[in-house]
Amino acid sequence: MAYDDDSKDPRIRATQSVWGIACGMMGISIPLIALTGGAGGMSYLPLMVIAGAAASSLAIWFAPQREKTYIESAPMHELEDIKRGILDLRDYIGSLEQKIEDQELQLRITQAGTGNQEIKNPPSSPT
Q1: Domain spans of the chain?
Q2: Is residue 119 pLDDT above 90, yes or no?
């Protein structure tokens, strides 16, 4: 039964896979020895399976660890970047809304000065 903290180490999962496959090969090799009577070096097959799994396990555990490319605080930096981006968008949209309001006011002033009181596009209410 795997625990949550064990699943974080890839060496444990790799070792489990190696030995799981080795057990399957042992399950196949033992009946093959019985069928062939150990002819052709078949009697060494279980020993080779165990030696191969052991050598693979040693290679897995004694290999140098790879550097973690995943930084624990990376999600926080990404979240802060997203927050900054949203604030920049709010500022940009706010400035565009202000420009639109200024243009509508300028249009009203122009229309009031010419005597034309009809506004073709009434100002939209700010959200």
Answers
A1: 10-62, 84-127
A2: no
